[in-house]
Prior knowledge:
The chain contains three helices and six strands; from the N terminus they run E-H-H-E-E-E-E-H-E. By secondary structure, the chain is an alpha+beta fold.
Amino acid sequence: MPPVKFNHVFADLGGIPADRLSDPQALAGLLLAAANAAGLNAVTPPVVTTGPTSVGVALVCHGGHIALHAVPNEGLCFADVAGLGGTHPQRGVDVIVKRLGAREVRTDARRRGPVTQPMDPERS
């Protein structure tokens, strides 16, 4: 059986209008749309938490997740999308970037999987 692999894409976003990052209902809907684009199925509704200066949104999915952390007054956001091998996290990040209207985008993608311990030559 081949090893399980996760696809993981995350993005730093800037230049976003504050009103797009401070509407809890719109952000919850955004995560559901991103999950759909990525091929992820939600386990529960999105959870939105707001603080004095920031907003956090999380969506737990079967075999993955989507999370967003934002500072509306600064127009900044960090988005994180991960899923098992057959999913497409980049598509989810693309939906987030487009709908938020981010003018600055930096992304990174990783394949994640089993961790193997490095050999310790002194113990061999």
